[in-house]
Amino acid sequence: MILGRASFSTVEQACRREWLVSNALGGYACGTVGGIHTRRYHGWLIASLAPPVKRTLVLAKVEVSLEYLGRLWPLGANEFAGGALDPQGFRHLESFEVAHGIPCWHYAIADALIEQRLYMDPQAQTSYLTLEVLRASAPLRAFLKPLVTHRDHHAHGRGAHPVEMRAGPGELAVRIAEAPCRLELRLEGARFAPLGEWYWNFFHREEFARGLDALEDLYAPGTFERALEVGEPLVLSASIEERPARPAAQVRAELEARSAERRAALPAGAPAYIETLATASDTFVARRGASAEAGTLIAGFPWFADWSRDTMIALPGLATALGRHDLARSVLRTYAGALADGLLPNRFPEDGGAPEYHTADATLWFFQALGAHLEATRDAELARELAPLLIDIVRTHLGGTHFGIRIDPEDGLLRAGERGRQLTWMDAKHGEEVFTPRIGKPVEINALWLGALELTAQIAKGLRQRAEERLCRDTLERARAGFQRFWNESAQALYDVLDVDAERRADARVRPNQIFAVSLPGMPLTPGQQRAIVERCARELLTSYGLRSLSPADPEYRGHYRGNAWERDAAYHQGTVWSWLLGPFALAHHRVFGDAGRAQALLSPIAQHLLDAGIGQVSEIFEGDAPHEPRGCIAQAWSVAEILRAWIVLERARRARRAAATPAKKPAPRARRTGG
What we know:
This protein has 676 residues and is an alpha+beta fold. Helices cover 30% and strands 27% of the residues.
């Protein structure tokens, strides 16, 4: 996955592609390949002060310049208000790649070639910048000028603030505006020259395009200076930890070994893009709170935290499919502990406040994640531990809980929603305006409800809880019969929502939610109905990178996702392509047509996308109209997970079918002995 000079020939190209690393604590670092910060979320150390939240930008970047052959060569790049670009170090960028999750730049200056890497310690709020001379015909000196701040990663820092600074040989400590943490920078063998200046009006073009404030001010405490020689890499560590940073070489070796382990868990012969996704799976792993046992998953970088729905959808692909069963068990226990009134929280607020529970499907996706884990591990201990919670969820949904979530006794289907609330994954809301309220009986909610009942019945049976098993089986039988109401004979598809009003009208818009009635196991549809659903979604919703959220034939379809916050929210689920749906579609396609190789081919365009937008990652969304420009988060957990999971499931199915079609070899006849 190497990008060459042609990928950085203009400012726009240098800004288009982004890199990302994270530290398994909620912290991260990211930026553009060309070095120009285009988002408020770009920075080289964004630390999580209360894992995995309270993410705080403390080191924006380090301006690197090299003295070589009597000339100073800047490698960094900045854009300022008014359009000024200074410096333009991307002009020296010969190549860029992400190897085992670590970004690597090669800068060519005259006849010298310099390698730069940037990564984070997966056990600490620490980033490393390394520079190494790959070739040179004369001595080099490196000048490293850190640009620092202290602000929430959703905000911008403006104006000068009091600065507390302490410097010594090869080290610097900076605290801005009485911040709760201090940034420690170390560069062994370096001389530090104090500067103490504020730099004004860094311009973030992506924020401007989103209709948001786009200017930032940063503080330059001074410059580290050190000789840079062949065979002696330069390592700058930046940390808010009180303990010394671990050796960079040790951390890099650990990251590369971890990537190799993820790739080794794949079926042999996996294509390069699937190996890349396996490495990317670690990006989203984090912990909630101080305990390393409290696992969670970040929904997407750079701006999402951990959301229950996203976590439960992503968990089978990021953990179970890769054999990370301890991680899956940890995450399931973490979220089970947050259950209240039969519901998982929609999300955990970034300010550490009380969880918000306005979701109808996160709890039901919990059953899917648990079911995948139990199928892979036969984890009887966890099944026994969670059984009372599962039964309580079923009973609570039968009796009714918050936000109008309850079973309709007439048809056994699950109803959800109330005015002003967005309870499904189509949750766009701006102010008080909910763009896709989907109040009533959403199709995917009820497909998930059937799965939840089936899993709970199976667990109850295994534990010999006869009354609980009978409750689930009776409820399931009624719900399966009621599910037939979703079939829209005239459209040869499923309604998206039933009983949307007092007249019990149905929403017949063509949306991708119906694909789960085919991709999930045990759905009460005929083969002909399943095929019709897949074909309808293929005709109207399928793109190279996922499924549109609304058919282009619909008058409310929006083919572009851009503009201010209201314009983007209005388009979010009205035609925008969602990459995470590509996995379920491929699995549904295989269920209908039985050709695993053909279904896998539906996933392969993602290979080209991995060289665009977030390098080595899958974007959250794409525009509905061709060429389907990537938008939203540059790295989305469920996007990576569902494509990865689908490929693995399909590959195993393909190999099983091939093995079944290959006749067993007869044992070779024994040679006869001949005597004389």
